[in-house]
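Lab notebook, design round three. We kept the backbone fixed and only want residue identities now. Task for the bench partner: fill in a sequence for the structure below.
Input structure tokens:
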């Protein structure tokens, strides 16, 4: 009897030590969020900017599509110089507008590259060394452009034409 009791105690202790402790927890339910709809950004309409100083005026209006392509108008009416106005076609590259400005001045059509840096809701025109090739004036090195804050085009209400 001692033998049976000893075997029973050993068997129970083995059984108890091998028994895994199980805790019942509620399964965590993960609800996947619905896929986000592709965001299609439509043009926000014309954006208009102007700079005015001592009778000189620079006006720019454009819109930007979902591919960051810019299409608009630009005009310069500087004291002591002929007025020129034309089209602006280019791209937004981060905070920088790089475009071709096709305009008429003194009876001739010309194309020149323009670069504007967008800062604090305004645009500052870039200046630098240029070269002419294929009837277009372009900047030699856009990384060396200077942006003079005194010629900042600020946001204005667009004129209704």
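Proposed sequence:
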């Amino acid at each position: 009897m001692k033998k049976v009791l000893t075997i029973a105690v050993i068997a129970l202790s083995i059984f108890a030590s091998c028994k895994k402790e199980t805790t019942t927890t509620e399964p965590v339910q993960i609800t996947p969020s619905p896929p986000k709809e592709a965001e299609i950004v439509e043009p926000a309409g014309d954006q208009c900017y102007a700079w005015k100083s001592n009778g000189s005026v620079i006006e720019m209006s454009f819109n930007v599509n979902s591919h960051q392509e810019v299409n608009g108008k630009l005009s310069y009416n500087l004291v002591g110089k002929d007025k020129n106005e034309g089209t602006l076609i280019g791209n937004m590259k981060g905070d920088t507008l790089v475009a071709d400005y096709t305009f008429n001045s003194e009876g001739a059509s010309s194309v020149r590259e323009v670069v504007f840096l967008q800062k604090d809701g305004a645009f500052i025109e870039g200046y630098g060394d240029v070269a002419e090739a294929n009837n277009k004036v372009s900047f030699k090195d856009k990384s060396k452009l200077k942006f003079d804050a005194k010629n900042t085009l600020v946001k204005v209400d667009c004129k209704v034409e």
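Keep this in mind before ordering anything: Residues 47-155 form one domain.
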